[in-house]
Specification:
31% of the residues lie in helices and 21% in strands. It has seven helices and nine strands. Strand 2 and strand 3 form a beta hairpin. The protein starts with 10 loop residues before the first strand and ends with a helix. The relative contact order is 0.18.
């Protein structure tokens, strides 16, 4: 089920359309090593091999695509981005995962599957955008929140979950609150 080649022409997507309510300010604009988190995550996707990088969220300066319908969470953002893209492979990352490493994203991009993520983590996510995934996204956006999720997408597309070492697992830390941000030494 795996393929050691990274599919050419994959697109990176940074999910940054949330309200950042737990953080109390826009997470995408937090400073990380001299640049904003949104810039850091875009650069990380490019370093991993993305041919193109888009942002899910209202950030025109960063090729942002605003959600067509607000309040639908990450899946709503992904659906809005998908509506602007041709079929192909997406590697989707949240804006608030600064410890992520390009090698982990390259590994994810290299998997030959319609949908893949890492064990116990739905993000980052590899998604093959095609008729099947587009149809599911359209239908799912009409569902109630428990059924309208990236986990539900992964399950519906018979997604695979890749194992992680403890070191790799540490890269998947989300920073949703000021306390989590401080734990990173920021």
């Amino acid at each position: 089920m795996t393929d050691t080649r990274t599919e050419p022409g994959w697109t990176g997507v940074v999910l940054a359309g949330g309200r950042s309510s737990r953080m109390g300010r826009d997470k995408a604009l937090l400073d990380w090593q001299g640049r904003s988190l949104i810039e850091h995550m875009r650069g990380l996707l490019r370093e991993a091999g993305a041919q193109r990088v888009l942002v899910s969220g209202d950030y025109p300066a960063f090729d942002g695509i605003a959600d067509e319908t607000g309040g639908l969470g990450p899946l709503g953002g992904l659906g809005s981005v998908a509506a602007h893209l041709a079929d192909g492979v997406l590697v989707v990352v949240p804006v608030d995962m600064p410890m992520l490493d390009a090698s982990l994203l390259r590994r994810l991009a290299s998997i030959d599957a319609d949908c893949a993520c890492f064990v116990d983590h739905v993000l980052p996510l590899r998604l093959r955008l095609n008729d099947r995934s587009r149809a599911w996204l359209r239908q799912a956006l009409e569902l109630p929140p428990p059924q309208r999720s990236l986990r539900a997408l992964h399950a519906a597309l018979d997604g695979i979950s890749l194992p992680l070492t403890d070191t790799q697992r540490a890269q998947l830390l989300n920073c949703n609150t000021p306390e989590q941000w401080r734990e990173l030494g920021r």
